[in-house]
Amino acid sequence: FERISEEISFIRARNPPYGPVEQPNMELKMRDVNMPFRYLLPQVPLFFCLASASVGLFTVSYFINFMLLEDQGHKKVVDICKLISKGVVVYLERTIPVICIFLFLAGWYVFVTAGWGTLSCFIAGAALNLIS
Q1: Is 23 exposed, middle or buried (0-12, 13-18, 19+ CB in 10 A)?
Q2: What confidence tens digit (pLDDT) does each residue in 64-96 have?
Q3: CB neighbours (10 Å) of residue 31?
Q4: pLDDT band at 6 (very low <50, low <70, confident <90, very high)
Q5: What is the signed CA dihedral for 111, 114, 119, 120, rounded to 10 degrees?
Q6: Would you report the helix, strand and coil content of the chain in percent, each value rounded to 5?
Q7: What distance in Å separates the CA atoms of residue 75 and residue 80, rounded to the nearest whole number?
Q8: Cβ-contact 82, 67 below 8 angstroms
Q9: Is 54 in contact with 129 (CB distance < 8 Å)?
Q10: Cα separation, 71 vs 65, whole angstroms
Q11: Do the Cβ atoms of 81 and 67 come closer than 8 Å?
Q12: Once rounded to an integer, what is the mean pLDDT over residues 15-26?
């Protein structure tokens, strides 16, 4: 599915060859300074970012679960697991609000530059990363 972004041009150049056919100024074959133009958002880097963030979060959650749930044998291991669990809880309590602020600001930028469709994709990706 295509994501189309519309922005204001800062240079004078021809329209992007990878952009959509429908441009704000259809009579011009070029984009001009302070005039809007449209282009397709690169999907491969967006999907790569989503996949790399998900793989990293799933790997961390797997190893934390392995340490907390599988190693319940010796007293020292159990104590270390409880300490790690408390550290993870404190870390998440302190960082999740900061991450949410950055996500809100990034979501606002995505909405301003690309509209509702891209914002919905951004919200879905952010929610999946926060849940995992």
Answers
A1: buried
A2: 766 666 656 667 666 777 777 787 788 778 888
A3: 25
A4: confident
A5: 140
A6: 65, 10, 25
A7: 9
A8: no
A9: yes
A10: 10
A11: yes
A12: 73
What is the C-alpha to C-alpha distance for residues 62 and 60, in angstroms, rounded to an integer? 5
User: Exposure string (b/e) for 108-132, b if CB count within 10 Å is 16 or more?
Assistant: eebeeebeeebbebbeebbeeeeee
DSSP-derived 3-state class of residue 75:
helix
- Calculate the alpha carbon distances from 47 to 4, 44, 98, 124 in Å: 16, 5, 24, 13
User: How is residue 73 written in tokens?
Assistant: 């044998």
In the block, tokens 């301003």 appear at 112
Q: Tokens for 130?
A: 């926060």
Alpha-carbon gap, residue 29 to 44, rounded angstroms:
27
